Amino acid sequence: MKRIEHIGIAVKNFNTSVPLFEKILNTSCYKFEKVDSEMVNTAFFKVGESKIELLQSMDENGVIAKFIEKRGEGLHHIAFEVDDIYAEMKRLVSEGFTLLNKEPKMGADNKLVFFLHPKETNGVLIELCEEVKK
Ligand code: ZN
């Protein structure tokens, strides 16, 4: 794995959380993007080599809304960048991990992504991502 690409944080409301993180990180949000497949809005901040991704549910039944209902706002996932997402999927499956999606799917920020089940990863939702070459 190459680096921590981003850390995902679940929030209720961009109107308050985007200015809050701009203040904390002392940088402006540089991108908003909808991910329709996950029913989330995302807001991105650059922090050196990594990013912070705020996640806000587009729908009260979305995964982020459900997460906040159960656990409150806060750390949602850690994303690691890899060179070859298919090879990493194969490796992790052979190590016995359960993938939340069987095939990589298109996530925010022009990335192919998949997730490991948090019950097998000490409760941390882990995303692996690979930049899609254009
Ligand atoms: Zn992510």
Describe this structure in words.
By secondary structure, the protein is α+β, with helices and mostly antiparallel strands. The protein has one domain: 2,3-Dihydroxybiphenyl 1,2-Dioxygenase, domain 1. Helices cover 23% and strands 38% of the residues. An eight-stranded mixed beta sheet has the order 2-3-4-1-5-8-7-6. The longest helix has 12 residues. It is globular. Bound molecules: zinc ion.
State the domain count: 1
**Quantity of strands, as a count:** 8
Hetero groups: zinc ion
CATH superfamily: 2,3-Dihydroxybiphenyl 1,2-Dioxygenase, domain 1
Spatial strand order of the main sheet: 2-3-4-1-5-8-7-6
Architecture (CATH level 2) name = Roll
Strand content: 35-45%
Average pLDDT level: 95
User: Could you tell me how far the N terminus lies from the C terminus, measured between alpha carbons in angstroms?
Assistant: 21 Å
Which overall shape is indicated by the principal axes computed on the Cα atoms?
globular
Which spans have pLDDT < 50 for at least 5 consecutive residues? none
> Helicity level, as a percent range?
10-25%
Order of helices and strands: EHEEEHEHEEE
Number of helices: 3
- CATH top level is Alpha Beta
If you consult CATH, what is the topology?
2,3-Dihydroxybiphenyl 1,2-Dioxygenase, domain 1
Largest sheet: 8 strands, mixed
- Rg computed from alpha carbons, rounded to a whole number of angstroms: 15 Å
The SS-based structural class is alpha+beta
